[in-house]
Amino acid sequence: MSEDNHSLGARVFHIIRENILSGKYTANEELKEKSIGEELGVSRTPVREALRQLELEGLVSIIPNKGAYVVGITKKDIRDIYEIRERLEGLCAKWAALYITKEQLDELEEIVFLADFHAKKGNVGQLVELDNKFHETLYKASGSKEMYHVLSDFHHYVQRVRKITLTSEKRAADSNKEHMMIVEALKEHNAELAEKLASQHILSTVENMDRIGWDVLVSQ
Amino acid sequence: MSEDNHSLGARVFHIIRENILSGKYTANEELKEKSIGEELGVSRTPVREALRQLELEGLVSIIPNKGAYVVGITKKDIRDIYEIRERLEGLCAKWAALYITKEQLDELEEIVFLADFHAKKGNVGQLVELDNKFHETLYKASGSKEMYHVLSDFHHYVQRVRKITLTSEKRAADSNKEHMMIVEALKEHNAELAEKLASQHILSTVENMDRIGWDVLVSQ
DNA sequence: TTTCGCATAATTGTATACAATTATACTATG
DNA sequence: CATAGTATAATTGTATACAATTATGCGAAA
Predict the structure, then answer these.
(1) pLDDT at residue A3 tops 70
(2) From CA A177, how far away is CA A201, in angstroms rounded?
(3) Residue B186: its pLDDT value, please?
(4) With an 8 Å Cβ cutoff, is B88 touching chain A?
(5) Is strand D within 7 Å of residue B68 (CB)?
(6) What would the mean pLDDT of B65-82 be, rounded to a whole number?
(7) In this structure, which long-range contacts are made by residues B6-11, counting pairs with CB atoms below 8 Å and at least 24 apart in sequence?
C-alpha cells in the first residue's frame, strides 16, 4: 500500500489532502505553512508546494500574501459531482468494455469477491478501500488518461460520503451486486450494457443517499 | 487582461503552461528548474512550485530525483477530451439554462456579436480569445464549481487545436452560429434545448476536425 | 469608551545554501 | 578497443535566510 518511492513533498501533499477530505481540517480553516510543517516535521518548502497543488485541485483557496484556506465541501458539490459522474462513468465503462485487459478483469473479479466477504462482516474500512480499487481499476481500463484523471479525482473527493453510505449493510451488498453486473458486461465486452449499468450504479448511489438524508452525509 | 494581483509563482505557472500548450516546449522535453528560472529571471523555488502544479494537471511528468518532462498531447487525448466534453457541455448548458444571470446572458450576447465581426475579418487570435470567453462564461453560468473546473481545464487543454480549426472562415462562422443558438436557448431558459445544442456544438466541432484531418491538428 | 496611528510581530514570497541523488567523463584494466 | 569503476559535475530535494506584506496590540487623542 505505502508506495515508498515518493518524495517528502508528495507525502505532505497526500497527508494534507486526506486531512481535508476526512474532515480533520475544517472548512475555512487557515492552513499555516509553519504550523503544518512543524506538525509533520518538515520545513515550509514541501508544505508550500503541497498547498499550491491543493489549490489547483480546488481543495484549498490561496489569497496571495494572506494565506491558504480549506475549501469546504458542500451538499451541492456532492450532488454536482454525482450528476457529472453519472454521465462520465457510463462513458468510462463503455470504453473499458472495448479496451479492458484480461489482467484488469481478473483484478475486478477479485475485488468484488473480496468485497462480498467484507460486506457480510460489515467491515466498512475494507469496503471503502475495495470500492476505491474497483473504480480505480475501471477508470484505468478505459484506456483514457483524461477519463482516469477526472473520475479518480471526483471519486476521491466524495470519499467521506462513501464512508457513510457503505456503513449500511444492505447498500454495501447492493453496491457490490451492481459492481458484479458491470464486471459481467465487461467480460462479454458488451459496451452498451456496461455503459447502462455503470450509469445506473451511480443513480442507485444517489437514490440511496436521498434515502439516508443529506444532512447526515454532509454538514453544510 | 493581465491580472496583476498574481504572485510571481502564479505567473511562472501560467507561462510554463502556455509554453507547453502552445508547443514551445515539445513532448518529452526535460524541464530543468535552473534553466527555466534563468530564462524567466526567477529562482528555482517558484519554478518548482509551478512544475509540481503542472504535474497535477497532467501536463508534466515528474520522476523523483530525476527531472520533469513535458507530457505530449496525443491524437487520442484530443479525441477523448472531445468525447468527454460532448457529454459534459450538454449537462453544463442544461444547468446554465436554469441558473444563468442577466449579466452573464448580456456577456454571452456581446461575445457572439464581437465574434461575428472578427470571423468576417478572419482575425483568428481574437476568435480564439472570444471562444475562450464564451465557454468560460457558460461554464461559470452552470453555477457548479466542479463543472467549471473540469470543462475549463479541458477547453484550455485543446487550445492549440482550436487555433487551427478557427482559421477556417466557414467553421468560425458556423461555430459562432451555434453559439448564438445556445444563447437563445439560455435566454428562454429552455434547459432541454440548451443541452441538445451544446452537445451538438461539440459534435460539429469534432466533425469539422475529421474533415480537416487529424494529422494537420496534432503531430502524434 | 472608541478609534486612529504606529510599532511590533507573524506570515507569506522569494532566493540561496546545503544535502542527496543522478548524470557524465575519464582512467585503468581486461 | 570495450568496459567497469570512480571521481566530478549537474540536478533535484529540503532547509534556512531574508524581503515584502499583512496581522496584532498598545497608546494617544477625540
Answers:
(1) no
(2) 10
(3) 98
(4) yes
(5) yes
(6) 95
(7) B6/A64, B7/A64, B7/A65, B7/B46, B8/B42, B8/B46, B9/A52, B9/B45, B9/B46, B9/B49, B9/B50, B10/A64
Helix, coil or strand: residue B68: strand
Residue B185 reports pLDDT greater than 50: yes
CB B83 within 8 A of CB B202: no
Backbone angles phi, psi at B67, to 5 degrees: 170, 180
Q: How far is the CA of A181 from the C1' of D1 (A)?
A: 64
* pLDDT average, residue stretch B41-69: 97
Kindly report the number of other CB atoms within 10 A of residue B2's CB atom. Answer: 5
**Cα–Cα distance for residue pair A158/A166, rounded to 1 Å:** 12
DSSP state of B26: P
Place of cell 506538525: A39
Place of cell 476568435: B127
pTM of the predicted protein model: 0.92
Gap between the Cα atoms of B38 and B12, Å rounded = 12
Output the pLDDT for position A5. Answer: 59
Please answer whether residues A45 and A84 qualify as being in contact, where contact means their C-beta atoms are separated by less than 8 angstroms. no
> Hey, how many other C-beta atoms are within 10 angstroms of the C-beta on B199?
20
**pLDDT over 80 at B123, yes or no:** yes
Q: Which residue type sits at A205?
A: T
Tell me the pLDDT tens digit for each residue of A35-79: 999 999 999 999 999 999 999 999 999 999 999 999 989 999 999
Nearest to B133 by CA among B187, B78, B176, B76: B176
- Domains of chain A from N-terminus onward: 8-70 (1.10.10.10), 75-217 (1.20.120.530)
Average pLDDT over residues A143-161: 95
Residue A24 DSSP symbol: S
The set of strand D positions with any atom below 7 Å of a protein CB reads 11-17, 21-23
What are the start-end ranges of the H helices in A142-190? 145-157, 159-165, 169-187
Residue of A99, A146, A220 to mutate, testing the B interface (most B Cβ within 10 Å of its Cβ): A146
